[in-house]
Amino acid sequence: MVTPRARSPRAVRWFLGRIYLEPATDVTTKTWPRVARQIMVFSTGERIVHWLHTLAFFVLLGTGVVLLVPQLAPFATGEAGMLTRIIHRLGAVAFALVPFLYVLLDPEGVGLTIRDLFSWSRRDIGWARAAVAYYFSGREEVMPPQRRFNTGQKLFYCLVVLSIPLFGVTGLAMWFGKGWLPVAVLQACVILHDWTTIAVTAMFLVHFALSVMHPLMRGAINGMLSGWVPEEYIRSHHAMWYEEIAGEQQEPAPPAETLSADQSAS
Amino acid sequence: MVAAKLAMLIDTSKCTGCRGCQVACKQWNDLPAEATRNTGSYQNPPDLSPDTLTLVKFREIEKADRVEWLMFPWRCMHCAEAACVMVCPSGALSHNPAGFVSYDSGKCIGCGYCAMFCPFNVPRLRADTLSGKGKISKCTFCQDRVLNGERPACAKTCTTGALQFGSREELIAAGLSKVETLKENGFPEASLYGHDTLGGLGVTYVLVESPEAYGLPLDPQVPAMTYLWRKVTRPLAGITIGVTALGLVANFLIARRRIRAEEVRHGNP
């Protein structure tokens, strides 16, 4: 049951309607009981790390894209341009440090995530075969059961993990290597840095669209906001993981305070 | 404004290595002297720097059991196809229609891309390593003088006439005829350097020996990476992001319609 947001502008209402911030909403009927059982999918540490990385990514993208979009040239020239470069460097430090924060805040979660990221099997081919029917037509029956991360998520996360050394090495070379590194190396770094950006940005758009906008994924965003996702969502989207944890995590719905706090926060 | 394309012709057979151009350049551009050290050569300071935009190079070659000196002023070549202009993100470097590569230090953000891509390794970056704040330096062709009808400081001060400034066409003709004269007088290796490289350099040299003897690149090119970055990466970014975004919008619209239809077909509990 969606609380009417009478004063929100229409576009905002439409958007919120897409992402379904209510903790207990449904994939198909949109009317899951508010007391539906919830499963904790992302720990507090993981959520903090996720949003800090998102913020750093936006800072880096915003200050880096001035080199690729001629219309943004005013931000790449004179005093403004120097400020853009300094902000880009601060963002880079944050982007590089956030993974270490993940290890500090939630070492167990890191292990769980790495385990899933590096477990590839025939099921991933099944995902690729079923992807079009699943993501375009919502034919859930053709999709093989997935673990905590499905193949698409794994692809994106692996790219993000790979991008950190790619951005890091090429970025550090351009930051500290001018004047002593061979120019051919510096030239290659400029191009590699940009190509990594292009790949990550394209995949980021997919990540955003699927986790926030896609009709099948309604409710998914809650996992990254409050940490809780309806049990039913996990059962239908991450069946293998659901079976793994069904025994352990039998918590009832999160306490009422949590629910209302989440709602006001969102 | 200047109607004809301008250029400099440096006749190395006339250069005595007096370094008048080097000093005049510092004087006009208000650049300090540098602490230097003896490297066993009269070339001093040893290299171009943010404070030395023109440097007289001294090279020693052995010729018929004698050591000969090759001396020539060295600075930005003002390429017509300039890699630095192609990669400069700030617009600080640009082509002036008068035929040189103009530099606006107010716009420069000190990224140093020009220094990375210059086929002659000319621009010099002075920047704070940590913050990256700084500026590039290079010969500006004395743009403030030239555009006001004056000769560049180096050309004005040159006592031997080795450094000439004027209409590019006339200077090229003069240079070619000087090369002929040199060849007839015992310098078979003489050549005119730069009149047709990289779209025609704004600084051309009458060389008495082969370009290698001067340490000049035989066939300088805009690095392939320049094109890869400017001509390929930019469109690649637009196409990749655009196609992805369009695909996602299409996915959203199709999925929204079909998944609603599915609900109706299966019926909801």
3D structure, described in words:
The complex is a heterodimer of chains A (266) and B (269). In chain A, strands 1-2 form a two-stranded antiparallel ribbon. Chain A contains eleven helices and two strands, in the order αβαααααααβααα. Chain A has a domain at 31-43 and 107-265: Up-down Bundle (Fumarate Reductase Cytochrome B subunit). Chain A is globular, with a radius of gyration of 21 Å. Chain A is 65% helix and 2% strand. By secondary structure, chain A is mainly alpha-helical. With 269 residues, chain B is α+β, with helices and mostly antiparallel strands. Chain B has two domains: 1-222, Alpha-Beta Plaits (2-Layer Sandwich), CATH 3.30.70.20; 223-269. Chain B has helices spanning 20-29, 83-87, 113-117, 143-146, 153-157, 168-184, 211-214, 224-266, and strands spanning 6-11, 55-63, 66-74, 93-96, 100-103, 124-127, 134-137, 163-167, 191-193, 203-207. In chain B, the strands form four sheets. Chain B has a four-stranded mixed beta sheet with strand order 8-1-10-9. A two-stranded antiparallel ribbon of chain B has the order 2-3. Chain B has a two-stranded antiparallel ribbon with strand order 4-5. In chain B, a hairpin with a 2-residue loop joins strand 2 and strand 3 (66-74). Classes of the chains: A mainly alpha (266), B alpha+beta (269). At the A-B interface, helix 3, helix 5 and helix 7 of A face helix 3 and helix 8 of B.
List key phrases describing it:
heterodimer, A: 266 residues, mainly alpha, Fumarate Reductase Cytochrome B subunit, two-stranded antiparallel ribbon, 11 helices, 2 strands, disordered C terminus, B: 269 residues, alpha+beta, Alpha-Beta Plaits, 2 domains, 4-stranded mixed sheet, 8 helices, 10 strands, elongated
